[in-house]
Amino acid sequence: MDDASRDPAQALARLLAIMARLRAPDGCPWDREQDFASIAPYTIEEAYEVADAIQRADMPALQDELGDLLFQVVYHAQMAREAGAFDFTAVADTISDKMIRRHPHVFGEAAARDTAMQNQAWEVQKQAERAARAETGTLAGIPAALPALTRAAKLTRRAARVGFDWPDAEAVLDKLAEETAELRAELPGAEPERLADELGDMLFVLANLARKLDLDPEACLRGANAKFERRFNAVEAHLSTEGQSPADAGLERMEALWQQVKRMEG
Questions:
Q1: What angle do CA 196, 198, 200 make, to 5 degrees?
Q2: What CA–CA distance (Å, rounded) separates 226 from 238?
Q3: How many CA atoms lie within 13 A of 128 on its CB side?
Q4: Which domains does the chain have, with CATH numbers?
Q5: pLDDT tens, position by position, 229-256
Q6: Which of 12, 18, 115, 210 is 20 to 30 A from 264 (CA-CA)?
Q7: Which of 201, 198, 175, 174 is nearest to 186 (CA)?
Q8: What's the per-residue H, E or C state across 9-23?
Q9: How far apart are CA 148 and CA 128, in angstroms?
């Protein structure tokens, strides 16, 4: 049976039935013990695994990870259904209604929009939705559970909309130099709380810099992580051919190999 002949509704109904069975009185003991709070970390983890599969352009892995993420949605919906709050149908209807509401140029009679116009209209609509939820203030509605760098970028983007922003990336770099000097001044005998405060300021400025450069700070850091991992693995592999471990080789030898790997990468 090819993909075109398969019924998505039947596949989803099967998944919903599996989830209900797992949470049934005679279902899986582990699944029955979970609640929203205990499942939330898995939901976040699965979203990151989706992003990882996309970054690796691994389509089989992406199919698998999207299934895991969908299962998280089904899991939360089942627990909400048991609590009498809402069910999966309500979740699907809510997002469908929201997408129709936010795209009147597609589903309604609004004039056609280019990307810039759509982004502006999208923000206006989201502001109206936040107001309807009694979320007041420029920074209202930014989830606290977001990764810290992502949330920093969102906070500053929101503030920039009302004029609270640096004029350009150069000004942010000047601020970064200022924060770096403040951290350096704290180093001799500083309390950990003071160091954490100053380092936090530096990271916040870096998130601002990424925004001003139209970059995603989380993606930048993931790239740096991947680069470090790749280069360190290459150093370790080279040492292995010499019968050495990193601990045996010492910093000077590892640094020389690190520079060699960098040159090889161009």
A1: 65
A2: 18
A3: 9
A4: 7-102 (1.10.287.1080), 137-215 (1.10.287.1080), 219-265 (no CATH)
A5: 999 999 999 999 999 999 999 999 999 9
A6: 210
A7: 198
A8: HHHHHHHHHHHHHHC
A9: 26
